[in-house]
Specification:
The structure is a homodimer of 294-residue chains. Helices cover 38% and strands 16% of the residues of chain A. Chain A has 294 residues and is of the alpha/beta class. Chain A folds into 2 domains: 18-107, Rossmann fold; 141-274, Rossmann fold. In chain A, strand 6 (200-205) and strand 7 (208-211) form a beta hairpin. In chain A, helix 1 (6-22) packs parallel to helix 10 (274-293) and helix 2 crosses helix 10. The radius of gyration of chain A is 19 Å and the shape is globular.
């Protein structure tokens, strides 16, 4: 039974957020929906249900894409709004990346603002110099980290920054939203990470990010952890015979990235992370409220 | 004699910065050069020369692209560094846009950080609610605005936000760095702006940004101002016979976007803006120092 339930991993985080929220004045999260994509509407529904579970007020605002920047501006300047979530892609590419940075860092529940990614990539774990406000991390990479901790990959008895020493990870995907931040987070805790995408392979170790030379076959054979987030259905599925015998496998994409035989042979297979991502979103919302609004 | 000298337009701004800098402790601008592109090195040289002219200390730091994020982090956290300039493109696209937002807004002399573009797109002219700190605008669009003011396009006798009423502008280019912010700035002052790029035409009026229906020929015929910033040498050059008889023309690209006959017939032709852009960079450096470091 290698298959892992994402809801079970998410549950303790939801419980923790619910208990904290119960003690606080109303916390309000606004979701800005500016595209017709079904996955955007679906993520908004998940966010709404997650918020309902923990007692955070969720408000979905449908806006024409041309008005999105304005809607962000209004939410930024509204003291009754504590968190802002935008469902990307809207325009795609550099323009979306600009919009991500128009959301005030103090309301950016996704942790995608440069203020937060600067901290992430340089392993600064607080928002302030006095170290009173813990930093926000992007929901999906953070969710994968929490899942790996729940699955016993982290050596929690060791000091921070050493808990993944001796662990090799392969990540398929190097986007700015999932693969790159995840590789950096794992490397900061001591892992060696091989990151593959259509442009080739990059090796992460501590703060180093360098072109890699390893092949997919070699990387998979030596990796105790394999995370895949490739949306392309033509991706060559990862087969059981390619994996390390003790591999923990996490599928982040909406389509399967692992072959059917992996479930039976991997140490653990987490084949979707959505519920964990939503739990991290709620946790980030609470953290921003505590850091900046309360 | 339609041809205008960009150095002459830049001069009063340089004088103003020099006089102010002379009264202040040393101001330090760091330029991060992480690509081998000759235009990057050349812009760094222009910045160095501009800084020398006005008394700002300039330091060029050559860094491997993989270390750029780290170099930004170090400059962000160094209290002796007051301004940071990164020469793009480095990786291109979304990753460069991420890096632009890793520079602290308080040191972002280019005005490309989301903190500044939010203000630009929503016509908020100060960095703070008390309106004590004037906002930073991106250098090239700001330089074009200052050039148009010097060339008599702005009705400076009118109130702010009305000074371009009755003026129609055509802009070729809608990048996040030049064309979009420029169109927004002009529209905030009352102009109607037709913005063309390979994806079509967009119409800007006040805060509205909507798909346009006008053709290039119609837009040019009614525009008293034409700004072009198309790097592609296959761009169809703008000819004199397409222009409004009183057209003020500004070429922002490194390659000519106007045909040879425009110089003789346009009211004014400014065929490069580099020196004005550099003057705005120095002006922004001074403004950030006054707003946040002094």
């Amino acid at each position: 039974m290698a298959l892992v339930s994402p809801s079970e991993i998410a549950r303790p985080f939801l419980d923790e957020v619910r208990e904290a929220v119960a003690e606080l004045p109303p916390i309000r999260l606004v979701g800005l929906l500016a595209s017709d994509r079904p996955d955007a509407a679906s993520y908004s529904n998940y966010a709404a249900r997650g918020c309902a579970k923990v007692g955070i007020t969720y408000e979905e605002r449908k806006v024409p894409s041309a008005q999105l920047s304005r809607a962000i501006f209004e939410a930024n300047t509204d003291p009754e709004v504590h968190g802002i979530l935008v469902y990307y892609p809207v325009f795609g590419g550099a323009r979306d990346r600009s919009l991500q940075n128009e959301v005030d860092a103090e309301k950016d529940v996704e942790g995608l603002h440069g203020f937060w990614t600067q901290r992430l990539y340089h392993d600064v774990r607080f928002a302030d110099r006095a170290k009173t406000k813990k930093a926000i991390l992007p929901c999906t990479p953070l969710g994968v980290v929490k899942a790996l901790a729940a699955l016993g990959v982290y050596h929690l008895e060791r000091k921070p920054r050493e808990q993944l020493e001796g662990v090799t990870v392969t990540v398929f995907n190097r986007s700015e939203v999932v693969g790159r931040p995840l590789a950096a987070l794992l490397a900061h805790d001591g892992a060696v990470v091989h990151s593959f995408d259509i442009d080739g392979v990059v090796r992460y170790e501590r703060e180093r990010e360098e072109p890699g030379t390893i092949t997919r076959a070699e990387a998979l054979r030596e990796s105790q952890v394999v995370v895949s987030a490739v949306p392309d259905p033509s991706f060559e599925l990862i087969r059981a015979d390619e994996l390390h015998p003790e591999a923990v496998c996490v599928n982040v994409a909406y389509v399967p990235n692992f072959a059917d035989d992996v479930e039976a042979t991997a140490k653990h297979l987490l084949n979707r992370v959505g519920p964990i991502t939503v739990a991290m979103l709620l946790r980030n919302t609470l953290r921003l409220y505590r850091n900046f609004a309360s």
